[in-house]
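Make up an example, fold above all:
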Amino acid sequence: MINSMPYQEPIPGGQYSDDAGQATLDDNAAIRLDSAIPYYYQLLEYMTRKIHTGEWKAGQKLPSEQELCDFFGVSRTVVRQALNNLVNDNLVVTHKGRGSYVAPKKNVLKLMQSMSGFYEDAVARGQTVGTQVLALQVLPADDELAEFLEIKEGDPVIKLRRLRSINGEAVVVVNTFIPERLCPNLVNEDMSDKSLYRLLSEKYNLRIAQGIRVIESVNAAPDIAELLGIPSGAALTLLKSVGRLEDGTPLEYFISWHRGDRSRFTVQLVNMP
């Protein structure tokens, strides 16, 4: 017995408005009723292909369960099983009483393949990065910052707080801390729509050679939720990272809050002898 589709709230901001139009069906022979391949799997393959090729675009409403049944000549159980798989694969979201919609693509960030930053990862995928600088100031290191940056408590550090967006949509809030002695003029830089890592490398000859990143699942505090345009308490992925120079000196400590509905992280694994 197939359960009904899981309920997922749409992301605030109207991404799932019917104004985006409806995905169209164009090949009722896509499901071969005389095939040994399960009907739900054939339907799943058809719909997945439509989404991956961009024929069905993010935000578009899918045909109703009944429309899918009538078009392909299959049962509602078949349709629901295919839709369940699409929801589990984060390709489709459902909204109670309104139907199913093509989900926006998640931003894939690499954690272990390289020490590249958010800006480099997004640009490499052909996306447009936006940055709102919320704070750029010098402050004394508290005990936590002193521990991570291996400096004395009270030593000056530069704090850079940014709201980063991809293709016009806010996706992450980042707090970055750097010992002021390593790049004292950084506090005077214009960090709008600029790669911090590139600036550190090209202007200050500072390059992160190694580091460690910790991943946690958290709920959005009210201030973070407001910045990201999501409900308070919504799921976030929290990253904490220390990046070091070639000689092991800590260059930066950052904390970033990524929207859970817009981010996916990949980790490369190796078999160590």
